[in-house]
Automatic annotation (TrEMBL):
InterPro entries: NAD(P)-bd_dom_sf, SDR_fam
Family designation: Belongs to the short-chain dehydrogenases/reductases (SDR) family.
Gene3D superfamilies with a match to the protein in the record: NAD(P)-binding Rossmann-like Domain
Keyword Cytoplasm: no
Name listed for the protein in its UniProt record: Ketoreductase (KR) domain-containing protein
Origin: domain of life: Eukaryota
Length: 229
């Protein structure tokens, strides 16, 4: 193994499942700066792509359960169990006939959506939690699923039995999806959640810069009725 990785089991490890140029990269940079071992997984990542950053690259197709299991094994062979696992996987599907006809989505696309947001998300969380149980008792543990404002029941179910779980999404000041999301903001918020050490509310919405999203109060209109003399 290249010395550029400088693997150390004395440092906490973050495992980013679903690594890309935006959110995944921002989170990896922040945690690397804070002294973490960083392992990143995707279908296309190559070790040479991230060697200069000091990350461990793990080839993983999250659409295949066997790949998920192999990816965790590969990461743990180098660093041991991860203290932080990020599930940053999305599969957007739009109905060909438009939003008025959602059943025009093909079965294959529908199944892929359900698998990635449900079955395979569960498997990543299960393996993450199994690793958490093997960490030293005083080591903070954290699992974060990234997403948008359309959070699912699966995410609420996963919190049961997890050490610390969050469903985190960057939103616009109005509370809608933020496009594009800000990579560095995700890194800042995720590391802040790690430092909290205790479970807060499972759903975290934040705006660019990292401040928690606060619903804006609706303006109050005052109507005045004048009675004619």
């Amino acid at each position: 193994m290249s010395s550029s990785l400088s693997p150390s089991t004395s440092k906490p490890t973050i495992f980013i499942v679903g690594f890309g140029r935006n959110i995944g990269s921002g989170v990896a940079r922040k945690f690397k700066k804070e002294g973490f071992n960083v392992a990143v997984a995707s279908r296309t990542v190559e070790q040479m792509d991230v060697l200069s950053d000091g990350y461990l690259a793990v080839k993983m197709d999250v659409g295949k359960v066997a790949d998920i299991e192999r990816g965790f094994e590969e990461m743990e062979q180098v660093y041991g169990p991860a203290a932080v696992v990020i599930y940053n996987v999305a599969h957007a599907t739009f109905a060909p006939a438009g939003p008025s006809n959602p059943l025009s989505i093909s079965f294959q696309n529908f199944y892929a959506n359900v698998a990635l947001s449900g079955v395979h998300a569960f498997e990543v969380a299960r393996l993450a939690n199994a690793g958490f149980d093997r960490l030293p008792e005083n080591t903070p543990r954290l699992f974060i699923a990234t997403g948008n404002v359309l959070s699912s029941m699966t995410d609420r179910v996963l919190i049961t039995g997890m050490n610390r779980f969050y469903y985190a999404s960057e939103v616009s000041p109005q509370g809608g999806p933020q496009n594009p999301p800000d990579a560095d903001t995700h890194g800042l918020v995720f590391h802040r959640l790690y430092q909290q050490r205790v479970q807060g509310h499972w759903e975290v919405r934040f705006v660019r810069g990292g401040a928690p999203w606060q619903p804006r109060p609706k303006p109050c209109s005052l109507g005045i009725i004048l009675n004619p003399a």
